[in-house]
User: Fold WecB/TagA/CpsF family glycosyltransferase from Pseudoalteromonas xiamenensis.
Amino acid sequence: MLVILDKLKSSMDIIEQFEATINKPVGHTQAISFVNPYSYLKLRDELNILRGLDGLYTDAISSALTFSMLLGKHIPRTSFDLSSFALYFLERANEEKLKVFLLGAKKEELEKTVAIFKANYPEIDIVGYRDGYFDDDEAVIKQISDSGAEYVLCGMGTPRQDRFAIKLKQTQTGQVKQIYTCGGFLHQTSERLHYYPKWVDKLHLRWLYRAFDDSYVWERLFVHYPKFFFLILGDRLKDQKDIEVNV
Assistant:
């Protein structure tokens, strides 16, 4: 089976995986990421990244439906934003006073996001933060390691954030328990805590709302999304043929 589909199918429930690390030692650092029609195109051939992930989920309704159909298993939409898993993560991090490092967005955006988190989740121990514009990975990895962070939120866009997450994971021995890629979450939260209005979230119109808020999303919708549907079907058919040949 395609590595990316196998990861989606075999990943455990994201909340259970998170809860298993709270106030408990972990054997190794976990890198967790999310895929949608756009990032599928970026990650489908990044086998080293995919094999290094400890959890992979899909954060778009369209890809959740597509993957569910192709895999014959319900693959729910799971996203690191406040319409999904991020809300649970932040609430539990606040309750348990977890140590969190934020990485991504522009400097001024990230500072606003940190202020919003501190106002709404004052018990989260934000042990450090840094914008996502840097060339020296090793220096940032050292900054994260020295901070004592247990959890890292990494929002630098695919595949940059995924590559960095794996690189960071490979330097750790369990002090950092989990690394979550989070795309535009840190950027979006700089505007307000709940980026999506409730009616947008209820009607599953997040994609349309983002398109009007960030113009580059139109290209993704009209260029990359159709390409995704074409390629995923081709990849799945090829995968099935390879399985039949090897039987």
